[in-house]
Amino acid sequence: VQVRISRAKKTNKLHAVLMSSSERGLGDRGERVVVPEGQIVSSTAGKKLEGLRHLSGVKAPDTLSFDHKNWLIHQHYIRKDFEACKALANEVLNATGERCEYAIYILGLIARQEGKIQSSLDLFQKSLRLNSYNPCSLKEEARSYFLLGRYERALEAYNSAILHSPSDWELLLKQSVCYIHLKRLDEAITKLKEAIAVSPQTVIYKQLGKVYLLKGEVSDAVETYKKAIRQSPEDSDLHSTLGLLYLKAGSTQKAFESLGNALTYDPSNFKAILAAGASMQEHGDYDVALSKYKIAVEEKPESPQLWNNIAMCFFSKAKYIPAVSCLKRASYLAPFEWKISYNLGLVHLVLKQYASAHHFLVAAYQNCAFQKCKCARICMLLAHVYSYLGDNELAGEMFKEAITIDQEDPLIFLNYAILLYNTGEKKNAVKHLGQYESISSEKVPKEDESRKVASQLSVSLQVGEVKPAPSNPEKDADSGSDDYEEPLDTIKSH
């Protein structure tokens, strides 16, 4: 054992001598070596001593790696000092002959943040020519394709990235977004389910629920959000979205439970407050709804939907001036929202300001047509305006257009029957009143005010009496008055 230790000590000592001598520019035996410029020094042991800076009379060339300044580029980038970052990255690229992959990658990210999407795409492709297997560059290339609207090419890039990074669930999620933009919803659902199998993240469940809603599959969306809540039970957005879905499905009790849970975890959740207030407004609790909206205004004072709903609460309480004021503010915040213009036309019609009503209803009609949707109630209210202005022929045309759009709305048939009665066309009035009665038997509650108006019109036409429902004491209609044409509906934007 002692012999072995002594040999090891001698070996270590010899190694130390060799290292110190080579560091001083000496050969293995200690003699000084002088070589011509540009040649390689070889020791007597056959070892190559390359790039020694301290050789007597010789300076070795600088051989720096391509990534020796990556850390500094990264520091500038995360500090958002983009000008210094670009200057340093370009300096490194000039020094390395544009072979620094990280510098090109960072320049691509900066170009995209500056809005130069095509330039960023070119830079990421340049980075991929240096290293075609880098999943980060592939991902950013796909992102640039997506921002340019080239969804098919984005899918190809994401597929290439997935081959090199199969456990990255974000790639599958972004693929599903591309499929959504391409209207291939079934493939989007498949990718989202694959992402859930890789990593069940809350954001994936939210996206899957949105896709189910786009397909009109509300029940599947509800089940998806339930699974998401089991994954993240304290996410107030999930509870509020589930509550809205329950409201849409008509499950009021479950909706209030979900909205209550959302407000428990986040009392300032705007979506939950707005949904709860709208539900109370639907049931006629206008004061309670206004108290909810008061809280929501503090959270999001520039929401056009919120001001629209506040206005309709005032309208239902016959406070028309505050209603107009709130609707004007909502219209300023969302000038192309046709429901707000519709409500403004409705309020002005009740106030018998027919010119203003016509202005806003025409705006609602045009905005609705621009958004490629149709609303029969707009045509019905325009018919009321033309009737009050004395143009019964144009009013009849608008009623016909409303019936063409929606043949299941009983109010359109009732109001058209009233117009026909007032213009002396009793035969057609009887016909449309009969259509109202056939539709309203299933859709209109017995206590609805339109039932009493229909009963009075039936008596006037002498076609038999419909059993009158209990009347609204605040709006009692006289059979011979123009109250038949009083608009009976409001549309709230949720």
User: Judging from the principal axes of the Cα atoms, what is the shape?
Assistant: elongated
Percent of residues in beta strands?
under 5%
Q: What is the structural class?
A: mainly alpha
Report how far the terminal alpha carbons are from each other.
89 Å
Query: How are the strands of the biggest sheet laid out side by side?
Result: 1-2
Secondary-structure element string: HEEHHHHHHHHHHHHHHHHHHHHHHH
Q: Which spans of ≥5 residues are poorly predicted at pLDDT below 50?
A: 1-56, 464-494
User: What gyration radius follows from the Cα positions, in whole Å?
Assistant: 38 Å
Number of strands: 2
Number of helices: 24
Q: What profile does the largest beta sheet have? A: 2 strands, antiparallel
Average pLDDT works out at: 81
Helix share of residues?
55-70%
Features:
single chain; about 500 residues; mainly alpha; two-stranded antiparallel ribbon; 2 strands
Task: Explain briefly what this protein structure is.
With 494 residues, this protein is an all-alpha fold. Helices cover 68% and strands 1% of the residues.
Can you walk me through this structure?
The chain has 24 helices and 2 strands. Strands 1-2 form a two-stranded antiparallel ribbon. A hairpin with a 5-residue loop joins strand 1 and strand 2. Helix 12 packs antiparallel against helix 13. The protein is elongated and about 100 Å long.
Describe the secondary-structure layout.
Blueprint (H helix, E strand, L loop, with lengths): L1 H22 L17 E2 L5 E2 L20 H9 L3 H15 L4 H13 L3 H14 L4 H13 L3 H14 L4 H13 L3 H14 L3 H13 L3 H14 L4 H14 L2 H14 L4 H13 L3 H14 L4 H13 L3 H14 L4 H13 L3 H17 L5 H13 L3 H14 L4 H13 L3 H18 L5 H13 L33
Antiparallel strand pairs: 1-2
Helix pairs in contact: 2-3, 2-4, 3-4, 4-5, 5-6, 6-7, 7-8, 8-9, 9-10, 10-11, 11-12, 12-13, 12-14, 13-14, 14-15, 15-16, 16-17, 17-18, 18-19, 18-20, 19-20, 20-21, 20-22, 21-22, 22-23, 22-24, 23-24
